[in-house]
Amino acid sequence: MQILMSSPSDSSHPLSQLFISFWAALDARALTSLHRVAASAAFLSSLLECIVFLVKRLWNNSAQTGDVSLAGNVMETIIREQFSLIWEQVSSKQLKVEERAAARLLAQTLESLFATDQALYEVSWDTLAMSINSSTMKEDHAHLVSAALKILYDRFKAGTLLKDRAEFLLKEVLVAGLDRCEQVLATQQEGETASFALLLGLLDQFREGLFDDAAISTVRFSPKNCSLFLLLTFFPQKLDTLLSQNASRLLKLSPPLLLSYLLHRKNEPSSLAVWHSLLSSIAAGTDGLPDQRSITSLLAAAQKGQLPKYLRPHIGELDSLVGGILEKALAGPAGSEEALLVRQILVASGTPNPIIFALP
What we know:
Blueprint: H1 14-27, H2 36-65, H3 68-91, H4 99-116, H5 118-135, H6 142-155, H7 161-185, H8 194-206, H9 213-218, H10 226-245, H11 247-253, H12 255-264, H13 268-283, H14 292-303, H15 319-331, H16 337-349, H17 354-357
Helix pairs in contact: 2-3, 2-4, 3-5, 4-5, 4-6, 6-7, 6-8, 7-8, 7-10, 8-12, 10-13, 11-12, 12-14, 14-16, 15-16
């Protein structure tokens, strides 16, 4: 084992050569097959098991010889380099592992390292958290980040350090994502859309779990539950306010995010505030017809009964809008965009009008 105790940063070191050999299978496209996803998952599982095995051997050997410092440097380097590389390869889809499966394997490895030594866990967690935070800025990483946060949050037991760290990371990502969304919505210029994709991914993963109103009413702040307290109280309130104040703009920038919120926000007053803000801004719009592409998904969800039943217009809330569109539809050609749009609005509102269906 003495040969393993020297620095692994040198490419000629046996540990470096071992992991280079592991990744060579990916570089050589050895995993390109009809069962590539399953093969890639097996590859990642074997790689992580190898990391844990080597770390445990080094740890036990250093405990026997008393040479903890050098062994610690070796183990930390292995963990840091491999965790960074794993996230890079999974997020870039070079290693085609299903996102939740990859997150579960990483979570299992975190548990194994924590059971070996807390310091080793700290290195692995810091490396993973840094990678996740970096990926929140990339729109095409949103699904992976959301899946990883969901797996980490659900897997670890309440009251443990692992759970506390997962809660803090989730809170950190949510707060940063909301802040970036707020910055984009504060200007009329088009900005980055990664933050909207991230919030959409988190809503789709956690669903109503991000809005635990029952827990909000019972949780009390203490230094031990600081992250949980902020997560349960800060995020729902700020998201409610942000969406109710910017519903119309968000409908143009990210219709799926607005729809996901209305589907998963199981709080009638909060949902209605966003809903009526959206309808009133559309009805009072000065830009002519609302963009049909933007509202298609929302209208389709309403027609299919996917939205809560209480999301209905107030009496007369859409009269001026529908009247204006109807006037253009009657004066226009058959099958016009106006005719289709007014029909969708009326059907979605639960008040279909026979006149619309009778249009030539």
